[in-house]
Amino acid sequence: MMRTKPRGLRVKTVLVSVFTALTLVGCSSIPTSSPVGHIEDDSGDAGANNARIPDGPEPGDSPSDIVRGFLRAGAGAGNNFSVARSFLTEGEAQKWSPQESVSVLPNGTDLDSLNVGTTSDQKTMSISPPVVGLVDSSGVYNSTEPGTRSTMEFSLRQENGEWRISSAPDGLLISQTDFQTIFLNYSLQFFTSDYSYLVPDSRWFLRSSSTPTVLMNELLSGPAPYLSGAVITSIPDGAKLSDSDSNVVTIENGVANVALGPQNPAPSDREKGLIRQQIATTLQVIPSISAIDLSIGGQTVPASLQPKTDTSVQVDGPPVVLADDHLSRVSGTTVAKVENSPNLKKAKASDPAVSLDDSLYVYLADDGKQLMRLKSDAVDATPILKGKKLVRPSIDRFNTTWTGEAENKGELKAVGRDGKSSTVAADFLNGRQLIDIEVSRDGTRIALLSRHKGEPDRVDVVGIPRDKAGNPAGHVSETPIEVGANFHEIKDVSWAGATSLVALAAGEGESAQPFRIGVTGPAEQLGEVSDGSRIAGGVDGRSILVTGADGALYSYNSNAWQKLVDVEAKDPSYPG
Fold first, then answer.
1. Of 419, 485, 429, nearest to 462 (Cα)?
2. pTM
3. Where are the beta strands (DSSP E) in 67-160?
4. Is 515 in a helix, a strand, or coil?
5. Tens of pLDDT along 16-33?
6. Which of 245, 323, 485, 494 is 20 to 30 A from 340 via CA?
7. Predicted confidence (pLDDT) per residue in 281-296, tens digit
8. Helix, strand, coil: what percent of the chain each, to 5?
């Protein structure tokens, strides 16, 4: 049964472009609605003890001091944000919901540097800080476009002779450093349409002793909107934690006790095993959990029913490149020609790709007007698709090749192993210039790099609905998530593991450099490579190649880039 959350972000802050920014420069709020408790020493999380203990209000603090102190205190989650609540009136402290959303400040932005707009009676204050990321109440991280600001307003009054906030926006506003200290990235687990693999749905939640309960409630609620129709949950609609255990996940001696209420109709043994698989794989990333004890309607679900489902697709073959006018494979520090590769000197070839099982190669020819395919046991390459200007192809685990027209009308092309092509609608691409297509190795998601004149480049990640045989439906999900929106230019992108991409990206006026970007998460620069033109990531997120405009090939190892000597190649791509 496929289930998704409602479309759109549940974020109560108001976003405005810098070009229409208010005259006030200020701050935003940090939100979340999922229950998150204080960080305890026995939470099993080594990072929990690094949480900041903020200062509370001081006697005689001005309204501005109170507002700034309240925002700073958002970095202290202890005792249900008790320090932050101490800046609020008694009534507001009971109503304020710190976890409705989280707004993340850019690096180098300090709360004290933000201007606070104040009315003459000092009873209303406004602040509108720059924001690089927003986390909604379900833990989904969305990066924001350059220049995004989050606006919030406060009402204040005196209580017992001291200024306190009587009305505050729900949520939190914190720095990137604080965000990655008190929040942690977790993955809810769902299945591919054929139940062959588990697919991670990346979320961000507080490091907390109640995190297992938060994860379970979100897992029961279903996948994020961008995965709509692309993944399957084995958990029936309406399933809830059992009232008999106070609706929480308890942990005893490393065993997480999960009690679900009765289900009608009762699940079969196979269905029970799949439910157990999702829950166990989701929860056992928490250090304090080594096993789970699951019951449904009071009946224990034994571990023997749990299937062995892979959590990632293995990539065994080396990357493919174009070198010396042939399809070639990179092995260590050398490049070797594919045995049956034709000479491509006159073909105007580019953008090779290879299937996960090494049985198929594809590439563009005639300056992108033809998509060619070479089977590993064939002598000649054959054309399988023609177009005006096709973009870099990608082969999924079903050996379907994906491409599309650069001048896009909201359509992608999928060519099956049998050579039959189909059109897959992607309406949000209509009128944009498509640059690159990259299918995730589990086949559930597709990353689409596109641009439009006068706008920052954009990477949309969206789910691919399929039937049980793996054939794509006639459309992708209608709710893509934008990845790496903070950048102005994105030259190239590639999957680098199940939850992240690598990209050659840059801010406005900067030169493109390699970054790792979470599908729902912040970006991390991976050193510097001069004049990089293409990037390719392996399944583990560490095997990364970059080619320069001059044909130089760089490999990322031990957090450093190494140039492969005496090698010239272009357009690298790992299998899948």
1. 429
2. 0.88
3. 98-99, 102-104, 117-118, 124-127, 133-135, 141-143, 149-159
4. strand
5. 333 233 222 233 333 333
6. 494
7. 999 999 999 999 999 9
8. 15, 35, 50
